[in-house]
Each structure stands twice: as structure tokens, then as C-alpha cells.
TrEMBL record:
This is D-amino-acid oxidase. It comes from Trichoderma arundinaceum. GO terms for molecular function: D-amino-acid oxidase activity; FAD binding. FAD binds at residue 193. Keywords: FAD, Flavoprotein, Oxidoreductase.
Length: 370
């Protein structure tokens, strides 16, 4: 039996879902999206991401990140063309700003966090290693992704498995049913439209809101990655530094501004971002201050924050077609991408079984052994 699947959305969640689904010979997958890798648009969040692994889930919701880390680690070690590299990461916490920490970041700064047994080389920082003005910190090995390379790599992997890509602007999720490259109506639609699900007909999820992120991308190199739990500049502002793999530049951040749709970079915020970066990491410019930064560009992305957390669920569209939703990842889309896509495959396989298919002999979802 052939399963005709249309994935709506070509961000990291849609592409990863398409990739894992394409590993089954019974699935014919089409990705339809307004924006594709190579585009830069405020409606398309994935290119603007850092992107790295900084665990953001509480332990009870940590499956997505737990299940993603082994695959990102494998890709980093074995697939250099994916554009991912290892970096040590230092996390510093302000207890005095506990009530003003930027939204969505709190679990990263928890005492005795769940990820201390998941991410390699975890240790608590000594007092003299903590950034002045902070109270505590930890260190672990993480990764940083060059989104330009990685999104394109995902497209290539999907295409190698027979996935077809089509540009389309959807006003209603039902329209995806007719967009398969096979010419047949889709019996499964995967909705990975991120913040677009707020206004997409047939979904219109009012629990979605943007969490605006503003960054500065510079040529300056710096190791390790750094993240702090808050700043004196207000609850929507954070300090983090991460160097993308393969010449992707160094990301200086940032903001986590809930409900803010503004697409243009704010010059005043940019100055504060740069000042915070050289304050927490003087080596970034060799002590020259922000004048020593070589700016590539300023950027703004809208994280798809969803009250109540990510939505990965199945629902019936009609008597012939089911929808599997995978959206609302806020700021952790990359670091939860494989875990969430794995769940999409589980839901799709459940539909296939109900339709009478025998799934014995299906390939592994991941190349690593779960």
C-alpha cells in the first residue's frame, strides 16, 4: 500500500519529519511550503536560529531533546557535510534575577538538571570560573549548527529518498491534500507550519504567539559557547554567544520577547547585545570592546511559542485523510527535531496499521540504535 503524505512546512521540523518518513518504502512524501531553505523571511524562523543544543524542557517533557541528542552527535561525528560541530558550553546563572529570567529559558538553569546525564562532560563550574555578577554555572559539551548548510543538507537527504519539494501558499490546511507530486490525494498531512498555524485555516491555534529573537552575527571567533540566565537590561533580554560550524559566523544574542511581531532589528537592542557579549566574553574582541566586532548582519526571527507546549498529535481531516501536527517548538526546534519527528513517524505508522498495513521489516527510524 502506498501512503501519500504531504508535509506542510519546510523549516527544521517539517524537513526532519519528511526525512524520517521517507525512510519507509511505503511512503511517498511531498514537502509544500511558501519558504524553502535559502530564503530569509520573518515568516520563516529556521534560518535565523543559532542553532545549538541548550536544553529548554522540563524533565517530564524532555523526550524530544533526549531523543534528538544522539542523532545530532552522530551527525557531528560522522557527517561533516551536515554543518555541525562540537563546542563546549558554559551556562551561568543569576539567582538575583530569578523572577526576571527570560521566558522559556528557566529549565536550562535548573539545579541538578536532567540533562547532566545526557550531554557529555557535564560538570559544575567552580566559583572562580563563573562570570562576575553571576552565582553559579555549569559546563557541558554541546553542538552548534550552521543553519544555511544544515537545512540544505536536509533537503538533499530528503531528495535522495525521493521526497519532492513544491512551493505553495496555503490559506487552509485542507489545500495540502491536493498537492502531492503523485497526483493522488494525500491520505496523511503533516502540519509543520510553526507560527503559521496561528492563522492557517483549519488549524487557527490561538495558543501560538511569537517569541521575538534579535541577534547580531559577527566574524569574530570565540570558544566556548556562553549562555546566561538573565541580564540587568530587562526580562526579555539574554546574553549568549555561539559560533556556527563551517564559517557560519558567531551569533551574539539576544532577546526572548513574547508577543512582539516586529521584524526590523532594533538598533538600541543591537548595541546592548554587543555590549553584553564583550562584557561576558572580553576575548571576543581582545579587549577592544564593541568597536572590535566585525558585524556580518543583524537578524530577527520569530520563535513559534505555544502555550501548553509543542503540539504533536493526530486528528481526522475527513473520512480519508488524517492530519499529524508537529508545531509550537518555541526556541528548541533544532534540538528537539529528531525526537519530535520520531513521534510523527509513530503516529503515521499507527494510521497505517489501522488501514490494514503490516509494518514488519520497516527500516529503523534512526541509524543509531535507540
Amino acid at each position: 500500500m502506498v501512503n501519500v503524505i504531504v508535509v506542510a512546512g519546510a523549516g527544521v521540523s517539517g524537513l526532519t519529519s519528511a526525512l524520517l518518513l521517507s525512510r519507509s518504502k511505503g511512503n511517498k512524501v511531498t514537502v509544500v511550503a511558501k519558504h524553502m531553505p535559502g530564503d530569509y523571511d520573518i515568516e520563516y524562523a529556521s534560518p535565523w536560529a543559532g542553532a545549538n543544543v541548550l536544553p529548554m524542557a522540563f524533565e517530564e517533557d524532555s523526550r524530544w531533546e533526549r531523543r534528538t541528542w544522539p542523532e545530532l552527535k552522530r551527525l557531528t561525528e560522522q557527517v561533516p557535510e551536515a554543518g555541525i560541530h562540537f563546542q563546549s558550553n558554559d551556562v551561568h546563572s543569576f539567582s538575583r534575577l530569578k523572577d526576571a529570567q527570560a521566558a522559556g529559558a528557566d529549565p536550562l538553569f535548573s539545579a541538578n538538571p536532567w540533562y547532566n546525564t545526557v550531554l557529555p562532560d557535564y560538570r559544575e563550574l567552580n566559583h572562580d570560573e563563573v562570570i562576575p555578577g553571576h552565582d553559579s554555572g555549569c559546563e557541558f559539551t554541546s553542538v552548534c549548527i550552521n543553519t544555511v548548510i544544515y537545512l540544505s543538507w536536509l533537503v538533499g537527504q530528503c531528495a535522495k529518498n525521493g521526497v519532492v519539494f513544491k512551493r505553495a501558499v496555503l490559506s487552509d490546511i485542507r489545500e495540502a491534500k491536493a498537492l502531492s507530486h503523485t497526483g493522488q490525494p494525500a491520505n496523511i498531512i503533516v502540519n509543520a507550519t510553526a507560527l503559521g498555524s496561528l492563522k492557517l485555516g483549519g488549524v487557527e491555534d490561538s495558543s501560538l504567539t511569537p517569541a521575538r529573537g534579535q541577534v547580531v552575527v559577527v566574524r569574530n571567533e570565540f570558544h566556548p559557547m556562553v549562555a546566561t540566565s538573565g541580564t540587568d537590561d530587562g526580562p526579555t533580554e539574554m546574553a549568549y554567544i555561539m559560533q556556527r560550524a563551517a564559517g557560519g559566523g558567531t551569533i551574539l544574542g539576544g532577546t526572548y520577547d513574547m508577543g512582539n511581531w516586529e521584524s526590523a532589528p532594533d538598533p538600541n537592542i543591537a548595541i546592548r547585545i554587543m555590549k553584553r557579549a564583550v562584557q561576558v566574553a572580553p576575548g571576543l574582541t581582545g579587549g577592544k570592546g564593541i568597536e572590535g566586532l566585525s558585524v556580518i548582519r543583524h537578524g530577527v526571527g520569530l520563535r513559534p511559542y505555544r502555550k501548553g507546549g509543542v503540539r504533536i498529535a493526530e486528528e481526522a481531516l475527513d473520512g480519508e485523510t488524517s492530519i499529524v501536527h508537529n508545531y509550537g517548538h518555541a526556541g528548541w526546534g533544532y534540538q528537539g527535531s529528531y525526537g519530535c519527528a520520531e513521534r510523527v513517524v509513530e503516529l503515521v505508522n499507527g494510521i497505517r496499521k489501522r488501514n490494514g498495513e503490516k509494518l514488519d521489516g520497516e527500516p529503523k527510524v534512526f541509524e543509531w540504535d535507540p
